[in-house]
Amino acid sequence: MTSPSFPQAFERLISELDEPQLTPEQFKAVFRQHPAGVAVVALTHEDRPVGFTATSVISVSAEPPLLAFSLASTSSSWPAVREATTLAVSFLADHQDDVSARFATSGIDRFAPGGWSTLPTGEPVIDGAVSWLRARVVQRTPVGDSYLVSLRALDAGVTDASALLYRDREYHRIGRHTAI
């Protein structure tokens, strides 16, 4: 008899817990109040750029330099991410709310309006972003109805722009004037 895979074991553990849980609406309400940085994850797939807005990017480890993001298994970008070796994460600047909205919109060519460049290694990055990371995909872990995609940072670029934040379905700007 073989032991269950991680996703099967995880799902069994979750289903076996006999305790109340939040509804999806309650869970979303909590996280809508939690401000998050806004990033665009972009890669090249079948010789075309693919990208999407992500507010789930997290730092995992400084040594080695690891980060992660989550992506719904139903996302139109998932097939490209599933096959990707490398990708780029551009952390958006406070004037790029239109870029975030564009990369969050389904059914359009998100790259058509421009405002992006290609790294020498082929990954697209957003021009004018606060910073970007080029990263190698090290793991794709199914969790619930999404995947947690773990990355090892390979290269980076940083500017002194202010970051764009997202909270309760609205964009916010921060800067030195908001420091406590």
From TrEMBL:
Residues 31-173 form the Flavin reductase like domain. InterPro entries: Flavin_Rdtase-like_dom (IPR002563), NADH-dep_flavin_reductase (IPR050268), Split_barrel_FMN-bd (IPR012349). GO terms for molecular function: FMN binding; riboflavin reductase (NADPH) activity. GO terms for biological process: pyrimidine nucleobase catabolic process. SMART domains: Flavin_Reduct (SM00903). This is Flavin reductase. It comes from the Bacteria.
